Amino acid sequence: MLALAAAVCAALAILSAPWALGAPWLAFVFKPATTLLVIWHASRRGHDLPIVRRWVLIGLWCSLAGDVALLWPKEGFLPGLLSFLLAHLAYLVAFTRVQGLAAQRLPFVGYAMVAGGILALLWPGVPPALRLPVVAYVVCLASMAAQAAVVWRAAPGVTGGVVLALGGALFVCSDALLATNRFALPLPLSSLWILATYWTAQWCIASWLKPRGAA
C-alpha cells in the first residue's frame, strides 16, 4: 500500500507540469508528499544496522529539502543543488559503513568516465558562476553511485545490493536528464523522465535497508 501511495503521489506531481494538467499547486503538495512516503518506507527498515539507517534517513531528509527548493526552479536551483549534494554525501557515509570507500576500483572508474562524459557534453551551457558547484555535485553523485555498485559487487548474490546499485544508477540518470534539460536542450516530457527515475532511485535506496525481522 505504501508503494502504491507513493506511486500515486509521484504521478500527481508529474502531472502538474504544463504539458499535462498545468496545475503547479499539485507539485507543491505531492512532490514533498512523495518523498515523505519514501522516508516513511525507509524509517520502517534497517533496524539491524542503526548507523546505516540513520545516514540513509539523513540523505532522504536532505533530498526533501532539495525537492522543496526546486519548486522554485530559478531561485531554488543552488539551494537545491546543495541539499542534494549533502544527500549524496549522507548516502556515501551509509554505504561505506558496509564496504570501505572505493574497496573496488572498477565502479569508480566506470562512473568517473560517465560523469566526465556528461560534464563534457553539458559544459558549454553551464553558466560560469555555477561551474564549480556543478562539478562538486557531479563528483559527489558519481561517488555515491559508484559506492552503491561496490556494495553490490561485494555480495553479488544479495538482492538488496542489486537494488542499491540500481538506485545509484537511476539517480545518475535522473540528474543527467535534469542537467540536459536545464543546460543543453529542452527534453519532451522532461518532468516525467526526471521525476520517475528520481523517485525510483530513492525508493531503491530506501528498500536496500532490510525490513524488520529479515534474516
Describe the model.
The chain has 215 residues and is mainly alpha-helical. It has one domain (50-208). The protein is 75% helix and 0% strand. The longest helix has 27 residues, at 128-154. The radius of gyration is 17 Å and the shape is globular. The chain starts with a helix and ends in a 7-residue tail after the last helix. The relative contact order is 0.14.
Break the fold down into its secondary structure elements and pairings.
Blueprint: H1 2-14, H2 24-43, H3 50-69, H4 77-96, H5 105-122, H6 128-154, H7 159-183, H8 190-208
Helix pairs in contact: 1-2, 2-3, 2-8, 3-4, 4-6, 5-6, 6-7, 7-8
| Shape category | globular
Helices and strands, in order, run as HHHHHHHH
What is the end-to-end distance? 23 Å
Structural class: mainly alpha
What distinguishing features does this structure have?
215 residues, mainly alpha, 8 helices
Structure described in brief:
The protein is mostly helical and 215 residues long.
